[in-house]
Amino acid sequence: MKRYIFIFFYLSIWTFGICQSQNIVNPLFRLYITNFQRIVFVTMDSTYKCTEFIEPLGKFYFKKYFEDSTYSPGEYSYEIGTKDKPVSPIPIALKFKFISNIDTINTYFPNNGKGNYFDSMINLNGVVYNYNPIHFDIECSYILKQLGESVIKNLHQNIIRVLDPCEDLNFSNSYRIFTVQFYKDYAKLYITLGRTVNYKGMQIIKKDSCILKQDDFEFLKKKLAKINNISDTVECREPGNPWILEYNNNSEYKCFIASYYCLQENKQKKKYLSPVTELYELIWLYARRNFRIDCTTLK
Which 8-state DSSP code applies to residue 295? Predict the structure, then answer.
């Protein structure tokens, strides 16, 4: 009888050990989970299937076609120290988690390729309109919608809004929005800090506001007056991640887009857009004086 009890106890321990080894990651490994989800991208004239991968810190990328739900390219990789920051190699357990529901992304634009439409005209029901694509980009902006921003183009208010990426060149998953609302005798500055933290996408991390000092208010109005004669059909997007500055004064609306690296490479555009960049830098300075807006706040 004692012998059977011993055999049963031994088999129980052996079976438990096998189950543990199959379902639990070695505690010496750091778990790194990447979620992936099937996406249907719908344009006005086509539909595309793809798969979105979202890494733990929010970085995401796409692959063509639907990926199999059991997708797992490899089990382990290693984190290696650098010369400036040496660390012992830490094993990382790579895991891919499938999100079963299919998401749909719609676009307002037909699949007619990339091009410059600033000089083109659109005829709708006998009425001819100038077509400036940046205006449509703003109206359809995923980042602005996720951060609770509305379209300011048709508002009967005096507003400046800046969308500023935290990275000038590399992939940016953190953004800052600076909005200046003008009143009769003063102006109020609002900030919104947002970051992509997981598969749910861009999320609000912080919101705040303050009333600008009177001297700052008067100086800002002088800088604003200098962009009246600047056309927003001149843009400077690439290379780099561009910032966007919108201005709405009752019925007048303008939207400028430029990146730091593009302006450094294109001296002619840099000179022409200098009143706009000066206004952008001034608003950025006011925000920095009154709030903590550095990108480390978003990490």
Answer: G
